[in-house]
Write a structure and sequence with these properties.
four-stranded mixed β-sheet; 251 residues; alpha+beta; Glutaredoxin
Length: 251
């Protein structure tokens, strides 16, 4: 059965994120769609088998900057999560088609889909420990680069452990903890010690992404970068990091 592409529209957001509990998420999606973010679904029969979400680099939700490029910040192939199968191929083709009409290239950064991207004509721009940056351009004016990461200065407090939690709203894995306890795990671990812990949360909007070069999530404990991926953080891991910070400050 052939895979077809459907597009998320403003009218579909309510169905995609139903209920009072998703009110904030719906507002965020509509706000980002107004800035140019788009989502496409790969559908086979009645089943969604993948999706892609992307935006112009001017509003990108990854730590990239560029000119005349649409950047993919989320690409999911439900049947081949890392290598990429038919769903990823069809989704990439759909993004490329729309981008060509806008005279824009297409970029993507990840550890996933390396062979597929090269096969489809994406070139490697650069790489670092959080992933490789790829670009498929049709004109020399279409360029993209990583924004250099800058660990922010932290205002410490005497006798208290300060946890700064930077997180990106677009990724539900990070919010709900795929492979870990996620944001709620960090919050729970911090709340256990009451006033002894100061938790400061920072949502990574575009201005903060450009300032810090931080598109993925990060936890700082007393100014030390202890986790580049909140989605992989367990409550026990956060507790241990807090205890280590306490021991260090008292020694």
């Amino acid at each position: 059965m052939a895979i077809r592409i459907t597009n998320l529209t403003a009218e579909d957001v309510e169905e995609c994120y139903p209920g009072v509990e998703n009110e904030e998420k719906r507002a965020w999606v509509r706000r980002m769609m107004a800035k140019g973010m788009r989502r496409k679904f790969a559908v086979e029969g009645d089943e969604r088998v993948g999706w892609v979400e992307y935006a112009p680099t001017e509003e990108a939700l990854d730590a990239v900057a560029g000119e005349a490029v649409n950047h993919i910040h989320c690409l999911i192939d439900g049947r081949d999560y890392s290598g990429g199968g038919d769903a990823a191929r069809v989704l990439l083709a759909a993004v490329e088609e729309d981008s060509a009409e806008e005279e824009r290239g297409v970029s993507y950064s990840s550890h996933k889909f390396a062979n597929l991207l090269v096969e489809l004509g994406y070139g490697v721009v650069t790489g670092h420990d959080l992933g490789t940056l790829y670009l498929k351009a049709t004109d020399p004016s279409q360029v993209v680069r990583f924004i250099e990461t800058r660990v922010p200065e932290v205002q410490l407090e005497q006798g208290r452990v300060v946890v700064d939690l930077y997180w990106n709203y677009w990724c539900s894995d990070c919010a709900y903890g795929r492979g870990g306890d996620g944001l709620e795990g960090v919050r729970t671990a911090c709340a256990e010690d009451g006033d002894a812990i100061v938790l400061r949360e920072h949502e990574l909007d575009r201005a903060l992404i450009e300032q810090l070069g931080l598109g993925h999530n990060m936890s700082l404990i007393d100014g030390k970068n202890v986790s580049p991926f909140v989605c992989l953080t367990s409550k026990d891991w956060v507790r241990d990091a807090i205890q280590e910070a306490r021991a260090s400050s008292s020694s």
